[in-house]
Amino acid sequence: MIELAQSASAGESVFFWILAPIALGGAIGLVLARSAIHAALSLAVTMMCLAVFYIMQSAPFLGFVQIMVYT
Which residue ranges run through the membrane (predicted)? Predict the structure, then answer.
């Protein structure tokens, strides 16, 4: 576990710690939303964060497919 944390660059760590709470907030907002519009916006936020995570992990095709298909 410690080896994985040490292998990530500082930029990846910063992006992860910024985007992870946003993705988590979007997922919680999706579940707790009373309006379908708000739930859809929360889903879009979560999916965009996932796409950025994929792109950061050297999977740009998967990230772009995530954006084009699921968002």
Answer: 14-33, 40-69
User: What domains can be seen in the chain, in order of their start residue?
Assistant: 8-70 (1.20.120.1200)
User: Rounded mean pLDDT of 4-33?
Assistant: 87
Q: What pLDDT is stored for residue 10 in this prediction? A: 82
Q: HSE of 13 in the Cβ direction (CA atoms, 13 Å)?
A: 7
pLDDT at 42 over 90: yes
Q: Which of 48, 65, 49 lies closest to 16, judged by CA?
A: 49
- Name the DSSP class of 8: S
- Rounded Cα distance, 18 and 10, in Å: 12
Q: Are 43 and 26 in contact (CB under 8 A)?
A: yes
Annotate 26-40 with DSSP letters as a single string. Answer: HHHHHHH-SSHHHHH
